[in-house]
Amino acid sequence: MVLEAGLAGVAKQAEQLRLDGNYYFSKDRYGAAIDAYTEAITLCPNVPIYWTNRALCHLKRNDWTKVEADCRKAIQLDHDSVKGHYLLGLTLLQRNEYAEGIKELEKVGKDIGEALIALFFPLLFGVLC
Question: What are the TPR repeat spans here (predicted)?
Answer without folding.
Answer: 14-47
